[in-house]
Amino acid sequence: MSRAATPTRAEQTASEKKATPEAPANSMDAITVFTFFWSQLMLLQCVKLFFIFKSSRTVQNAIPLVSLAIVDFLALVKPRCRYVTMTSLLVGFVVIFVTGHYSNHIFADIALGSCIFLTYKSDRSEWVNRATWAMRAMVIALYFVTGIDKMNEGWASHEYSCCILMFGGFVGLPLFKFWVPSWAPWDFMPHLAVIIEIGLPIALILGAAKGKYFWLRFVCFWGALFHCVLAETVSPMSVYPFTMAMAPMYTFVLPEQAALVANTVVNWLNAKPILRWGAFLGLFAAFVSAWPMLMAPELEGAMPFEYPPYGLWAFAAVWSLCSCVYLLCVTFWPAPKSDVPVKRVYPKRSLLGSIPWIFICCLAACPYLGIRNYPALAMFSNLRTEGGQPNSHVFGDDFDFLGYQRDYVTVHSTNIPSIEWAQVDLGQLFTSETKRFLTEYNISSEFWITPPFKGWPYPPTREFVPYSTPFVELRRRIAEMKDFPKDAYINYTRTQAPPQLRLAKVWDIFGVAHPMADLDKPASQDFVYNSTVRGTEAFKDLETPLSPLVDVKHRRRASYAHKLEFQVGKHRGGENMKVPHKVPKHPLLDTDQNMNEIVTYADLKLRWNYVGDVRRNRMNMRRKWKSFPNRHPKREVTTAFVQHDRMPFITEPPKDPPPGMKLDLENAFVVFLSGKWLQHKATVGDIIQTERIKRKQAGDQIVFGSVLLVGTKDWTLMGKPVIPYAKVHCTIEQQTLTKDQVSFIYKPKRRWFRFRRVRYWVTMLRLDRIEVDPRYSEAPEDKPLKPVRLLDMWASRWQTPEELRAVQRDEAGTMLAEKIYDGTEQAPGHHQRRGLVEAYRFYPDPQAPHQRWHW
Predict the structure, then answer these.
(1) Are 227 and 246 in contact (CB under 8 A)?
(2) For 275, which DSSP code?
(3) Any stretches that span the bilayer, and where are they (predicted)?
(4) What angle do CA 121, 124, 126 make, to 5 degrees?
(5) Sign of dihedral through CA atoms 779, 784, 787, 792?
(6) Are 317 and 238 in contact (CB under 8 A)?
(7) DSSP code of residue 690
(8) Per 3-state DSSP, what percentage of the chain is helix, strand, and coil (rounded to 5)?
(9) pLDDT tens sequence across 38-72
(10) How does residue 557 score in pLDDT terms, banded at 50, 70 and 90?
(11) How many angstroms separate the first and last alpha carbons of the chain?
């Protein structure tokens, strides 16, 4: 055949396009599958916005939540509509930009959606072609730069490698830990991860250039397994938000097979929609509910700690498993033939489609340019670029011309929360089984993160550990503090380190000297920053706000504690009104009105008055502030002993009084609980009124064990929540009645009212002695109460000595009644109500014999 008769590649592509049959209008394509995945990805943002709106119910928080939820629902039920896809992307961009905190998966979401948004065409097949090229280019750039970031010294460390930690968390799951051999290739896993992350973009380039399905299937197979492993680990180790962001990307690795698999699944489900959709959703919900018990049985069905607190670990783990199965089906699905109802995809270059992968490359270069102080796209890669001590094998400080990374501070001690907890160890919040498995294989369970400014709303996970951070980060946090406390301080050392060049020979070849090469020794200086030196010339550089170009920072995250102190309109909380409309005046306070003249309901209303303004056009203060309970981790009972002459202290105070220190308890005061609702502050000799203590008489000695605080003018001993080794000894002075309390009852429908006078029983106590003994530890009683004491309880009175001597006993002196009943407590708190315990204890004392709301 002559050369002129040989068809070119463009002519072959055009002929294939003409030969491809037209797909039906309701058939699915790669963008349809992407829209379906995008709707579930935006579910994370909806959950985050819901928690923000729940803590602060304002219009500003409601608008992004409602708008994103609406378009998210439309994208879930109408993924084929192009207007729904574009609207969902646009609203998602706006919401992320306004409310996001610019973490790694947020950047991935922005780049992911841009590949579809920037390549939009009215012709849907042309849109798919351009989006496929843009998405593949972004995946190539993403894996290539993260593979380079992992080429460092820390990544291959057996003890501290994030790769080994993640792999250990995965194989430590109950389904896999029994399969782990003693010779498991732990040290080989970091090298395998680097090979995969460098090999995937190379394989994708080969598959896209030559049109070979083998290389594209290779990328889809290993990518699906790789990200499924990252999501299945138990939170907080799980990084399922990034896995949910990567699933839509793999749709465009094999776009035709992805559309075919989705078309097959949807057609099969729609054949019998009620039965099959119901069975699928029910099975999915069953797996989600059972997942915590299967993967973390030591939590007994409770959800593990999550940060950020999405609360979707079980849902995301099952979802990631389903998406992995879907991508594996896409991998092994046969190549589309000419008779299938799916249009062939021919990737086409686009200028706007190049923006996402360029954005990824620029973002990945930020750590090496000294702009961001943590790896932009490989956060858990053990990469270190700050402090003049880079551990990368590829780049050092060669491109840090501004010197922000080498100008760093070492924080030795501080009491400012945003500085003290700039680094948080999530490893302390791993489950006990995960910690045990990691310790068994000599893997460190430290898992440090850097939360945003004011972004850690939980208690500290461990004691403060000195750390280093770039000076610009400390400057950013100090400059943003509007109200600096008087007792706040920072003890730090500022160091300017010389650059460590990895490309020194390259600089020599070009004959260019590095701008910072003249620095050969680090220069350090110690500082103590507090309110007395604030505003002075020495700390002017620390207090100067960053310029917009330098202030490349995390997005501030909303606080989940209660912040709103005022609200508009009525104060509703549950079933009851926080502010009642009207209440009748007390009869003793209304002496001008003759009670005998009240005949009708109208006459009675004349005596009623308003006690609160319930109009909606005013701002009212909340009567009750609610915050989220702290359940993870549960804190143990502890104490703190503070000596007043040593304040303010810069280290954690001791838990107990120093050995040998004599405590002056005669002049001390104590705060203790005498009932479920009553607590008292008293000193020795004070008279205390409390609720009636049953089965006790005047002159009896009793002990209260729920002591909250003991203090003098020299020291204070605080309990959290109680002091376990402190007690209060009291003597009952009298059991008496209170004065008359008049109550008014009125039933308008029956036109009936009544006045009632009530007197309540109370017990008057005299505080005899305060006992504080750190060596004391109360052990639970091994044996139940003796039956001889239970005779008093059965008889509802104290037995006389003559009656006790008449009790039948055996030869050993044991009561015969012990054979019938050994004295076991029949209900929690029963013996305490009867006065048969050593000390009275009440909630929140962990040794209290009753529950919180029952006693």
Answers:
(1) yes
(2) I
(3) 31-53, 59-77, 89-119, 131-148, 160-176, 188-207, 214-234, 240-262, 274-292, 312-333, 354-371
(4) 65
(5) positive
(6) yes
(7) E
(8) 40, 15, 45
(9) 888 888 888 888 887 877 788 888 888 888 889 88
(10) very low
(11) 100
Residues comprising the chain, all counted: 855
Burial environment of residue 230 by CB neighbours within 10 A (0 to 12, 13 to 18, 19 or more): buried
Tell me, what's the pLDDT at 608?
A: 53
**Single-letter residue type at 515:** P
Rounded to two decimals, the pTM is 0.60
Q: How far apart are CA 709 and CA 722, in angstroms?
A: 7
What digits encode the pLDDT tens for the residues 129-185?
999 999 999 999 988 888 888 888 888 887 778 888 888 888 888 877 666 665 667
Cβ(766)–Cβ(752) below 8 Å: no
What's the pLDDT score for residue 550?
Answer: 60
With a pLDDT cut of 70, the percent of the chain lying above it is 78
**What is the CA angle 259-263-267, rounded to 5?**
175
Q: CA 762, CA 548: separation in Å to the nearest integer?
A: 67
CA angle 648, 653, 656 (to 5 degrees): 140
CB 434 within 8 A of CB 169: yes
Orientation of helix 30-55 relative to helix 59-77, angle to 10° = 160
Distance from C-alpha of 284 to C-alpha of 287, rounded to nearest angstrom = 5
Confidence of residue 12 (pLDDT cuts 50, 70, 90): very low
Mean pLDDT of all residues in 819-834: 75
Q: What are the structure tokens assigned to 707, written together?
A: 């002591």
Which two structure tokens, joined as six digits, stand for 753? 């009212």
pLDDT, tens digit, 9 for 90 and up, residues 323-335: 889 999 999 888 7
Tokens 């000294």 found at:
370
Whole-Å CA distances, 418 to 353, 476, 479, 540: 40, 11, 12, 20
Within a 10 A sphere around the Cβ of 66, how many other Cβ atoms?
A: 12
pLDDT of residue 555 exceeding 70, the answer is no
Amino acid at 138: M
List beta partners, residue 166. Answer: none
> For residues 189 and 789, what is the distance between their CA atoms, to the nearest angstrom?
67
Q: What residue segments make up the domains of the chain, in order of their start?
A: 21-361, 365-543, 581-621, 638-783
Phi and psi based region of residue 796 (left: phi greater than 0; alpha: psi -120 to 50; beta: remaining) = left
Average pLDDT over residues 385-413: 78
Mean pLDDT score of the chain: 78
Distance CA 558, CA 63 (A): 16
Contact 439, 517 (CB under 8 A): no
